[in-house]
Amino acid sequence: MKCLCARPGLHCHNGSSSSCVYIQPSVHCLRLCPLFEVKKLGYLQLSHQLHGNQSLCYHSYHKSCGEHRDDSNEIDFHVKIPKTAFISKFRMTIDGQTYDGVVKQKEEAQQQYSQAVSRGQSAGLVSSVGRTLEDFKTSVTIAAHSKVTFELTYEELLHRRLGKYELLINAQPGQIVKDFKIDVNIYEKPGINFLEVKGSLGEKSLANAITTTRADKQAWVSFYPTHGQQMDCDGCGETGLKGDLKILYDVDRPRSQGDVTEHGGYFVHFFAPADLARIPKNVVFIIDQSGSMHGKKIAQTRGALLKILDDLAEDDYFGLILFNSNVSPWKRELLQATQTNLEMAKQFVKGITDHGATDINAAVLKGVEMIQQHPRNGSASILILLTDGDPTSGETNQGKIQSNVRKAIGKKFPLYCLGFGFDVNFEFLQKMAQENSGLARRIYEDSDAAQQLKGFYEEVATPLLTSVQINYTGATNLTQTTFSYYYNGSEIVVAGKDP
């Protein structure tokens, strides 16, 4: 793993990463600046470049230039970047003099940002906004007849989900742009076998502003909206465009052992075998029905569970556990997903109501017990916890709960934690999932919450391999090489240093 450390400067990054950002040297990367807002400018040019590659991470950049004015003025720079990305470079150039920024860890960033602002200095801060994006904002005051150029680079590892990589580009310039351009260039050594463009910026009157080209190992996507299209599209007006482009693609996988690429003494191994038989699963859903789940949350949970039950295969086994201050399994044992059992389960789900406190500890331990009491050779076991709050009943010490769950599971199967809404203690759920070979996902309290729940389940619904161990002779500095499961449509990525 390479270590990328920032240089001294005024600009701060309020992310969750440490001051020394670790990157895999040969991974899918997204580096572009998808949104900015510049006030008091008569001319503005926006240019995006993206290069995703299995062998190299290329830097790309974006620049916006101010016009000459007869008085001094403050220029704002506003960018939305994916939550999973990190800023690797930010600089301002004012009348030919360049000022480099620095990426700081969260606490130090907040302190230095506040100090810089109080002194009247330029400073930038990243903060969370919405489901998938974070805001980066900064401003600078320039003298009359001066010009400022902003340049920001960020990088992101793209994760393969449901058989596709997704590049998310947000455009919201806050004004009509004279020369608005988004250019995306994707290069994949194994070859590109699928390309699709979605999102609000690719719909209706803006659809003909998009051009796509594909040729074996490369693909290009261009988005060049005219002045009129920026004015007349749905939701547009004097503030210009406001929306997203989603570029979905996948690569050829001609070799079952995956693709290995090397660069600068490092290697990366992409492993996503196809044509494997699915493994029957044992899945237990642990559902919070405490009083805080009242209203839309519990209704959407019921709707999602009904759809998920329809997707279970007949050779799957399943269990349902409801919990508040008490733990209430639907049945004492796992049941086969026969049509009769599924219909009974659906009737039970339709009757779920909300009341009481939240005993997460007892509920998860009960789920572990249910799976352990009904072992089944040749199957994959999965626990899925859905909650919207902190533990308020039974064991409430979060560290103790995490320890109890870790000891009970004993690395035998993964725990996935779904946090419903903004009030949930997501860090608690995230740590508990990561300690048990799973992951945590925030479910946003919107009209599509049921689809978010079902979408997550689809990612783990089809296990293809269990107890995956990948060995490399003589390699060092390896990332994770042991994986509980490999799921259909996903990808295992391992990086390391060549012997």
From TrEMBL:
Stored SUPFAM superfamilies: vWA-like
Gene Ontology CC entries for this record: extracellular region
Domain VIT residues, every copy: 6-156
Pfam families given in the database record: VIT, VWA
Gene3D superfamilies from the UniProt entry: von Willebrand factor, type A domain (3.40.50.410)
PROSITE patterns xrefs: PROKAR_LIPOPROTEIN (PS51257), VIT (PS51468), VWFA (PS50234)
SMART domains reported for this sequence: VIT, VWA
Subcellular location: Secreted
Main location: secreted
UniProt KW Protein transport keyword: no
The protein, known as: Inter-alpha-trypsin inhibitor heavy chain
